[in-house]
Design a protein that fits this description.
With 192 residues, the protein is mainly α. The chain contains 4 helices and no strands.
């Protein structure tokens, strides 16, 4: 009987030790769960912060892409028009000069339509208005030149050339304004 009592006491001690061990393990698990929950909450907050930063970066990148697309569009539209304008100054006769000027006017009109069709970023609104006004003034000066050549009015021709010079200067200033608004110094030296 003593053996049974001793066995019962050992079993009771083992059960008590198991209960105490389970209680300690439960307390540790509960503490670990609290720490894990806190770490998870901190990770979620950090993830939301990163997502917010990425969203801002994405918007900035989209704006930068829109500005670049607009600026390339203006450059690509103006280059043929300005080439036609330069060619109009080297005509060898009045009729050739008139034809070259009319071709330059058509190229400027086409450039104006192309620029008007571009998506305009908010940061370039002012520069865009100035670029369009300068293109219109240059086309107007060319039209006055065509008229003056046709009528033989040298005073009108001089006034038209003066207007064209002012329009070219205005265009150069407007292009500088566009590059400044975009935070660049101007076009790269390569032609791409």
């Amino acid at each position: 009987m003593r053996l049974i009592q001793l066995a019962a006491a050992v079993v009771a001690a083992l059960l008590l030790a198991a209960v105490v061990g389970l209680a300690v393990a439960y307390a540790e698990a509960r503490s670990q769960l609290g720490s894990t929950r806190s770490a998870l909450a901190a990770s979620r907050a950090q993830l939301r912060s990163v997502q917010g930063a990425l969203s801002g970066d994405t918007r900035a990148l989209q704006t930068e892409q829109a500005v670049g697309t607009y600026m390339r569009g203006v450059r690509d539209a103006l280059n043929p028009a300005l080439d036609a304008y330069r060619a109009s100054g080297s005509a060898s006769s009045a009729s050739a000069a008139r034809a070259d000027d009319e071709q330059a006017i058509a190229a400027l009109t086409s450039a104006r339509h192309t620029v008007s069709a571009l998506v305009l970023p908010n940061s370039l609104t002012s520069a865009d208005g100035d670029i369009r006004a300068a293109m219109d003034a240059l086309a107007g000066g060319l039209q006055s030149e065509v008229t003056a050549i046709g009528t033989g009015d040298f005073g009108g021709l001089d006034a038209a050339l003066t207007a064209e010079d002012a329009a070219l200067e205005h265009l150069q200033t407007a292009l500088g304004e566009m590059y400044s608004a975009a935070g660049t110094a101007g076009p790269a030296s390569s032609t791409s």
